[in-house]
Amino acid sequence: MADFYVKLGDATSFTKTVSESDVYQFAGITGDFSPNHVNKPYMEKSSYGRLMAHGALLVGFMSTVSTQAIAHCRDADETPVSVGYDKLRFLKAVFIGDTVTVNYTISDIDTDRKRSIGTIEVTNQDDELVAVGQHILQWVPNG
């Protein structure tokens, strides 16, 4: 395979404790005020027993690691852009106070289409897999 901007196996990670502020600010930014995220008495009556983070907030963390994975490509002749996520699944709830680690590994490269695929795994502080997905990056010519 010819040289590309990233290599198979390139990996990075991001770790963050999800705060109540994160969840409420995300709700305000997106307008997603589902009681699962912002209504404590409602969720205390559920089998979960407490507020959970938005799945889309986890996707934001996935975006963070994708940006880290291509940080070294800023001076390239082409600009890497996200063209989507595939096989995205939320396997377990993430609660306020949980610490998540998002791992991103380049798992496929298509030099003809100028694309790479990043495999994403999100775990919590108990090393439980809470979310997975694949991220597609496209390199677009500059100018």
Tell me what the structure shows.
The radius of gyration is 17 Å and the shape is elongated. The protein has a domain at 11-18 and 61-141: Thiol Ester Dehydrase, Chain A (Roll). The chain is built from four helices and five strands; from the N terminus they run E-H-H-H-H-E-E-E-E. Strands 1-3-4-5-2 form a five-stranded antiparallel sheet, covered by helices on one side. By secondary structure, it is of the alpha+beta class. Helices cover 24% and strands 38% of the residues. The model has no long low-confidence stretch (mean pLDDT 95).
User: If you average the pLDDT, what whole number results?
Assistant: 95
Low-confidence stretches: none
For the biggest β-sheet, the strand order reads 1-3-4-5-2
CATH class of the domain at 11-18 and 61-141: Alpha Beta
Total beta strands:
5
Main structural class: alpha+beta
Going by CATH, the homologous superfamily of the domain at 11-18 and 61-141 would be Hotdog Thioesterase
Give me the strand/helix succession.
EHHHHEEEE
Spatial separation of the terminal alpha carbons: 26 Å
Helix content: 10-25%
Rg on CA atoms, Å: 17 Å
User: Overall 3D geometry?
Assistant: elongated
What name is given to the CATH topology of the domain at 11-18 and 61-141?
Thiol Ester Dehydrase, Chain A
What oligomeric state do the depicted chains represent?
A: single chain
